[in-house]
Design brief:
434 residues; 2 strands; globular
């Protein structure tokens, strides 16, 4: 008792340090977001790295792995320097409609005691950093096997600051789309539409790979792709359920609907191939899984299990048809199908979030999981505005960035280098020495 009284006296005198933030931080929430941060980083390296590397030809396997690894490093530092403050600004400052204030450049407004909700602000910044890493890495699939490494680094750096961070602010940082009530729980607009649109614009600006549509370009190692796909599936639980930024019922529902949509997307894509080609493919089932995951992402905070299955099935069918249309009809070489899977999936999922969040739909609604949107039409119009504005801004800005980079260093390797392969030409190494 005497010790307790002494401590109280010291506190009153200001001599005993006490952290006001300590009582505001939830240990459970912090532990879950720490785990989620690791899971989302795991999605990029090694998940996405292996998924993409297995899909390219043997002469380019290292180039894709190198791009994903280098982007992880570079985007982390850019997020620390400017990306985070553009997206979220600094605390206790009223944020603008389009970008955050620059008071948190180099995390200047962040200390070990800073709090964001019920978790440390440093942890929130780290969690969001993993999203800023994987989004530019997704774009790699649009220009795989033909972009210069230097051009890729410059393009991705500008793109993160000019495209990703502002749109992140629009949706998650209190910007104009957030003010309108856009529902994008984990990145349908911020991650998937931006990456998909940037990839297809890059593919159009750079042109097709040499021999595209006339020379077979099968994946060189599907076992590697399946391994990466499995890692993506597991990591996506941190991506979606972690976006609840709490260890609560919202995170649990997001995890459940994410898994159901992935399973439904896989089977739907497999079924489409089976019907159209007579055999189901390994590549098809894992691509359907990614489509299911990408499509449920924006809706994972506003729909229930039944809607998740419908969304996953729709993703498997629609993204499959979009992939075939872009490659076979439009003859566009989005090398690893970033736009038809992520772009189309992000658009579909963002619109579905507006449809299925309404509790008027009974079993297909969020069942109280969302805030309860009574007007389906009203919410759908908000979702459509989010889709169109994200699509348009990303397309225009990406095109300008590509043209600037092309003027500085040139975007594409020459034909002889492309024939030889980027592994040797750009890195003087081979993926396999058997």
């Amino acid at each position: 008792m005497k010790t307790f009284k002494s401590a109280l006296i010291l506190v009153a005198l200001g001599l005993l340090p006490m952290s006001a933030a300590a009582d505001e931080i939830s240990g459970a929430d912090t532990a879950w977001i720490l785990t989620s941060t690791a899971l989302v980083l795991f999605m990029t390296i090694p998940g996405l790295s292996l998924f993409y590397a297995g899909l390219v030809r043997v002469k380019n396997v290292l180039s894709v792995l190198m791009q994903c690894f280098a982007l992880t490093c570079l985007m982390s530092l850019l997020w620390f320097a400017l990306g985070y403050t553009i997206a979220f600004g600094s605390p206790e400052v009223e944020q603008g409609a389009f970008i955050g204030d620059f008071g948190n450049a180099f995390f200047a407004a962040m200390t070990i005691d800073s709090v964001n909700g019920t978790i440390p602000a440093t942890l929130f910044a780290a969690f969001q950093m993993t999203f800023a890493i994987i989004t530019p890495a997704l774009i790699v699939g649009g220009f795989a096997e033909r972009m210069k490494f230097s051009a890729m680094l410059i393009f991705s750096s500008i793109w993160l600051l000019v495209v990703y961070s502002p749109i992140c602010h629009w949706v998650w940082g209190g910007g104009w789309l957030a003010q309108r009530g856009l529902q994008d729980f984990a990145g349908g607009t911020v991650v998937h539409i931006t990456a998909g649109v940037a990839a297809i614009v890059a593919a159009m600006v750079m042109g097709n790979r040499k021999g595209f549509s006339t020379v077979p370009m099968p994946p060189h190692n599907l076992a590697m792709t399946v391994t990466g796909a499995g890692m993506l599936w597991v990591g996506w639980f941190g991506f979606n359920a972690g976006s609840a930024v709490a260890a609560d019922n919202s995170a649990a529902m997001a995890l459940l609907v994410t898994h159901l949509s992935a399973a439904a997307g896989s089977l739907a894509w497999m079924g489409m191939e089976w019907i159209r080609h007579g055999k189901p493919s390994v590549l098809g089932i894992v691509t359907g899984m990614v489509a299911g995951l990408g499509t449920i992402t924006p809706a994972s905070g506003s729909v229930g299990p039944a809607a998740a299955v419908v969304i996953g099935l729709s993703a498997g069918v629609i993204c499959y048809l979009a992939t075939n249309y872009i490659k076979n009809k439009l003859k566009l070489d989005d090398s690893l199908d970033v736009f038809p899977v992520h772009g189309v999936g992000g658009i579909l999922g963002t619109l579905c979030a507006g449809l299925f969040c309404s509790q008027a739909l009974g079993i297909f609604s969020g069942n109280g999981f969302s805030d309860g949107v009574s007007s389906i039409g009203g919410q759908l119009s908000i979702q459509a505005i989010g889709v169109v504005s994200t699509f348009a801004y990303t397309a225009v800005a990406t095109f300008i960035i590509l043209k600037v980079v092309d003027a500085i260093v040139g975007l594409r390797v020459n034909e002889e280098q492309e024939t030889e392969g980027l592994d040797l030409v750009l890195h003087d190494e081979k993926g396999y020495n058997l």
